[in-house]
Amino acid sequence: MRELGGKVAVVTGGGSGIGRGMALAFADAGMKVVVADIELPAAEKVAAEIAARGARALAVHTDVTRRASVEELAERVTLLKTEISRLEEAATKKRASRDAANSFFKS
Prior knowledge:
The chain is an alpha/beta fold. The chain has one domain: Rossmann fold. The chain has three helices and three strands. A three-stranded parallel beta sheet has the order 1-2-3, sandwiched between helices. Helix 1 (17-28) packs parallel to helix 2.
């Protein structure tokens, strides 16, 4: 099985039932999870459960029977992935700078 840690999972119907179970399993595998559900309070509850486990989650109201709602979900996920990439890049640069400084001072 491929490594899932750090990837983003989008789970429609994630506020209950099998979708909830999948969202929690993805979080336990180290994924960031977008919990999409027509019932926003249910999605928020699952996102809170995921956060309590130490993983990152976002609840999004989504009605998969409405094209505009699914397009909005896709747009939010794209923005989220872009933000995650930007933050990871900044963290990598900061670590590299710190490591270079430590190496310089050890010499």
